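Journal club prep — side note

Before the paper discussion, L.F. wants everyone to see what a predicted structure for a comparable chain looks like in token form. Sequence:
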Amino acid sequence: MPNKGQQHSIEKSRQLQRNLYLAAKKDKQRRFHALYDRVYRPDILWRAWKEVRKNKGSAGIDGITFEMIEEYGVQKYLQEINEELVGGTYKPMPVKRVYIPKPDGKQRPLGIPIIKDRIVQQAYKIVVEPIFEANFLEVSYGFRPKRDAKQATERVKKGLYKNWYVVDADIQGYFDNINHEILLNLMKRRISDRRIIKLCRLWLQAGVIDNGRYEKTTKGSPQGGVISPLLANIYLHVLDSYWCNDTSNGEIIRYADDAVILCYTKKDAEKAYKQLQLIMNKLKLTLNPGKTKIVDMNKDSFEFLGFQYQKFRSQKSGRMLPYMMPCKKALKKMKDAIRIITCKKSAYEGLDSKVRRLNPLIRGWRNYFSHGNSTKRFIQLDEYLWMKLWRRVYDSRKQKKYKERVLYGFKRWYAKSGIEYFYKGNTDKYSYVL
């Protein structure tokens, strides 16, 4: 728990955000100056530290960890950052590039800044974000305060009740292809403080270390940086603004670089596709030709943020209505996670530790997908989990004669294990074993 002084610092920083937001909302053409001195304010840096520490993460290229900073002294460390920013000697270090596997077998590059840079970026975000939030539109849901992916998916389903064609847009390598000059010019529309713009430029051009080799960054914003989601939203706000000013092109719903455009007719969808290409050209971005397509909801489906959207005829009304369910990729990803945790055979004591690892995954998956038409998928996963755990206990080669006895013991353990349900209405979990 923070002490009274720390709590006061956090509240003071939030009051600054409220004031900046209200001022920006009142005059949407106003350009803000004298923001840099707020970035290095002690209360802002303290809050930035708390939020970066909460998010955890590994060390950057300097090898400095959170534990090392805490041993050194957090206040002392923040004071040194303050002095660098005040004196103009702060210079970000290159980010460490790591790769994480994607479901299609490819790898997604991530950039890990050093902790000092993460703290400064978070302080920068605290000060700058409210100004741009005042301009951001309702159609944007990604990485914004009080907005999330669940809201975006519900908005898509609601829009599909009256629309029959969808432009499923995929921007090719979005974060890697953001044009620095266009982005900085977009920021200058609201910010006149040169030091704030310069700080952003330093991060964009800091470079990356990939397998020990330094690479310059002349375009793009590395995924993984604290400031990257905000910069991404500033850049694509151009797209949102165009679409909301000309609603004849359909309804757009965007989450970061994932976007869908809902249209009533095929002609509208084709027009929207062409307009989307024109805007991408102006932003010096390209659509992925293999993934961007027009979907006819009378016969096809599409995926958005883990959900598969499809229209089926209602048995009650006879109308074609939209349904959203976990997509096959999301289902496979969850099954893979279950399989990894339950992969080794063990006694009942070993299963207890597996349950402790499984429950957070189950809760997270269930909470995200529960607002969709997910019952069938939830039951499938309950059955899959039951069988995976049962196979950790039962060996047909050795225990075939004792199957009933082993099954009885397993059922008793399962009932007391505290394992979570995917489908909360599923009360008979023992019907899965024949």
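L.F.'s comment for the group: The CA atoms of residues 99 and 109 lie 5 Å apart. Keep this in mind when we get to the figures.
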